């Protein structure tokens, strides 16, 4: 061991046997933010298990890029195997590289541009059901819309509202189980016939039955479809082998889950911020009205929606959906002055990173203009909403496009107002979602008439 290399220090407040489990359970977000003041890498205890928290943006970047081969995805991703199999978000090593190559054509820029029309069609159909003066459960509604968009691109179709709600509830059940198992210091209870475990099995069965029926239909009549499932059915690995049904089932289920959750949560926070900042909302309306000029939104409009894009960028900073990302060292590694043994569990928090006052001026202020090119920008590694390196989320471009499309479409038609007495707080589950976000719908023509009066 060299003189400048040491085992990372323990964070204060560690208790015998439980470690830092109490602050993690009490207020995860505040705890992760507070840990940033204790060093570039700090050690906490989750029960008796040591976990190393990486706070430095330079070291997070190094871990995700230059040293990525020294880490597996870690505990959270292992628990996400609840969705079945080893789809791309969970796969490791050679399997991850092969799956990413197979999936990449579905997420090329040109392919994403081809999705814009279907995104718009699906979202517009949902928005036509909204009613002026209605009270909207914003997160639930956006989850249904984003799930509908993903399903229309995966399958060329989307279910009716009640089956869609059942699918969404099942995805949420699996996600909630994964995060509980990640932060739990013991795992013996996971195989017991407890009510939560029975609910989890039922949710997974519904998801795989739903997706399995669709995959079977595509195999029966492959020429009738042009979608992501079709691409997976046609894909071949390096040996010319097609994916089997279970592999396709796992990939599609993972895409359905991941592709709807992040965008819905981001959009919910964005609408929350518009409701709190009427000056920002007015600027958005002006841009959307000017760029679209009453026309139907197409891929050609997206490059001109500069302010809309900055709104999404700032939402992914201030309200990043990820409060925890895990890694595990596969060999002894050094990060800065921290020496970590093989098998060490590591975590980092995009949510806490993006709110660090050392990296962002007035970090709790929602300010889309902080992303203007003439303004000082954060250092490399300080803004990574989708990760970095070879394991960076393959769907980042899809999420940027979908969030921009949904923001523009909603802003072109609707204003959403907070219900009186609303208190919205962040809830760190699998993503950091709003606790309860109910807003009143106001059609923009009604808003204009009211202002004129």
TrEMBL record:
Keywords: Heme, Iron, Metal-binding, Monooxygenase, Oxidoreductase. It holds the Pfam family p450. Signal peptide: none annotated. Gene3D superfamilies: Cytochrome P450 (1.10.630.10). It comes from Kitasatospora paracochleata. InterPro entries: Cyt_P450 (IPR001128), Cyt_P450_CS (IPR017972), Cyt_P450_E_grp-I (IPR002401), Cyt_P450_sf (IPR036396), Cytochrome_P450_Monoox (IPR050196). The keyword Metal-binding applies. The keyword Phosphoprotein does not apply. SUPFAM superfamilies: Cytochrome P450. It comes from the Bacteria. This is Cytochrome P450. Belongs to the cytochrome P450 family.
